[in-house]
Design brief:
homodimer; about 375 residues; eight-stranded parallel β-sheet; elongated
């Protein structure tokens, strides 16, 4: 099946680009002497996960228990669920942990600590990280608060918990405008985490692991000293935002959405695509770099840039603006590809990704869905 | 199963509220003397679709061929696919049309007209509407252009097409700030459509139908004179945007997302929910009414308002800001409900909706997915 003949909208993945991206990042991290525990949340497919762990130690990071279960079923044995655990899911997580070499869980509250203490037993210990706020201010304990040291000690002292260390994520790196700004966030992510781990060690708490990382920060980090593992994920697919902030080029985007032109109005400088918010997601993208970025980058089937802007998305329509003469080059029925602003959110809207090599579909990958 | 015991995030639907919303709008439209052909794209479930057609003529509107097929399989016989048809789907649509009383298709280009002309035969006629731009400027022909009259005549003269009339959608009503502004858009939607239909009639083209409508405009329209049918959809569920622009109250929202508090940080005035962009969608909501609206309205399980703002969404985290003393009232483990900004996009992220009556789950609805 050729791209030209596919039903649209359709999610496309190029496994050679995934392979190139994962190999490049694996090499970079190995050069820093840290372990790479790739995040699989961007694609949620076993196939891309296998490319990510190639040449690494095999551990992965997930964002949901559903991912943890699916990857466990596919043979992944060492999994970190990198979201603070809701106490109500402690029993479910403990049951899954018993089937694996390790299921590492995140805690940043006494409520969650108590829930894990209740589930853990001598015969069924639970591995736990303290989630640390390294400046993103989303989740995680405050590194400056004495209460954070107290909570770490509680985890370390709990009879049937294995306290692994501290875990942070500099999600604010997505708000950077260029590699220089990313490097500053990467320094902060590393320093806050390593300093806090050292403070715990000074307080007598054993801290085997310091786990950090986002795609931008691990791409540009100048040092990972004191860091034992990193957990980027987006780099497997990349997207228009990562290209805009300098993590990659648009040509490195492994995921795109194939769309058909369903409206062509040169007189008002407008195309309409059959890919709307339900095919692309409404992530606003890198507006901090380019306020006019629109909802994704438009490319031809041969991956050429198209000088048009995807200005708005409604449920099943993507509205594209540009000069009338450019619009007229893409009559109703034309196929175009859109590199979404945020591949993690766009890919999650599709039940399957068509695997494309040289403009032909050679297979499909089925992502995990739900929680 | 009580709400308190559910896994989160979970999509919740209250069928009594759906019934109240659909009954109220059906009465309103009947009072105007127009037919209601409800749109099912917001919920994509047969169950809510049946409530929408109750007391009406039975026809529905869909946004995808997948919806058309699923609703056809459930016994719906008169369906309008209200998106300009991509030429490549003409054969598929024609095959489905043969199984139904009517599958009405939309055209606003010669390419799409040609594709339908090719599929239609004496024994298998196709019903077609001309999609008209009534001021939204997304899709549709320009009512002022002579070329639009020419295209209508082409459709009317095609030997095996049934030209049904003109169809418009005032999607720009979502950008209104209050009912007064909506009434102005409703006037425009009706007048542009009726005037253009009259112009076609003056040109000798038979125009049986004038089909218009969005939830805001049909809610506030002062007249539907000359309009034969209306196609609102969001009103079945409503959402935070519709409440903000005056289409409903927050209490009329039939769809919400149940979430658990997974982080509680009174010192920095922050809660974190386990409902992020993959549970709620990143629709920015009614920022034109309230720039501080955030990503949805937070309610307790008993539907009380909570004075906190859902300020940002990442993939699996919802970050909530508020005064430390309010934040402290919702410790880790607390369940809250979020009424999303845009129920059409949030509901599409869920494989099932739990049907809730009096804080108990009594069933589930499975929406149609894909295209």
């Amino acid at each position: 099946m050729r791209l030209q003949d596919l039903r649209t909208p359709a999610a496309l993945v190029d496994p050679r680009v995934v392979g190139r991206n994962t190999e490049r990042l694996s090499r970079r991290i190995a050069g820093h002497g840290a372990r790479l525990r790739p995040h699989v949340k961007t694609h949620k497919t076993v196939e891309a996960g296998r490319l990510q762990v190639l040449g690494n130690f095999g551990g992965i990071t997930v964002s949901t228990l559903a991912e943890a279960r699916a990857f466990a079923a596919a043979g992944f044995r060492d999994i970190t669920w990198a979201v603070p655990i809701p106490p109500a899911k402690a029993a479910e997580a403990a049951a899954l942990a018993r089937e694996l070499e390790a299921l590492h869980l995140l805690v940043d509250s006494d409520e969650a600590a108590a829930a894990l203490e209740t589930q853990a037993t001598a015969g069924s210990r639970l591995s736990v990280f303290l989630k640390l706020d390294c400046g993103y201010h989303r989740a995680g304990v405050d590194p400056e608060s004495p209460d954070s040291v107290r909570l770490a000690r509680r985890l370390a002292d709990a009879p049937h918990l294995d306290f692994r260390g501290v875990l942070a994520h500099a999600g604010h790196s997505y708000a950077c405008r260029d590699p220089e700004e990313v490097r500053a966030v990467a320094r902060q992510e590393r320093e806050v985490s390593v300093d806090f781990a050292d403070r715990l060690r000074d307080a007598g708490v054993r801290v085997p692991e310091v786990s950090i990382g986002s795609t931008p920060t691990v791409t540009w980090a100048e040092s990972l000293e004191g860091v034992t593992e990193v957990r980027p994920g987006n780099y497997a697919f990349f997207d228009a935002l990562q290209a805009a902030i300098g993590s990659c080029r648009l040509e490195d985007a492994a995921f795109s959405v194939l769309a058909s032109v369903i409206g062509c109005y040169p007189a008002r400088g407008r195309l309409v695509l059959d890919a709307g918010a339900l095919a692309l997601s409404k992530d606003p993208g890198p507006t901090h770099v380019d306020p006019e970025c629109g909802f994704g980058a438009i490319r031809t089937l041969r991956d050429e840039a198209v000088p048009l802007r995807l200005v708005s998305l409604s449920q099943e329509h993507g509205a594209v603006d540009g000069p009338g003469d450019v619009v007229a080059r893409f009559p109703v029925g034309t196929r175009l590809r859109v590199i979404p602003n945020h591949s993690c959110l766009a890919s999650a809207l599709h039940e399957r990704y068509l695997v494309v090599e040289a403009e032909r579909v050679v297979g499909e990958w089925r992502p995990v869905r739900g929680w």
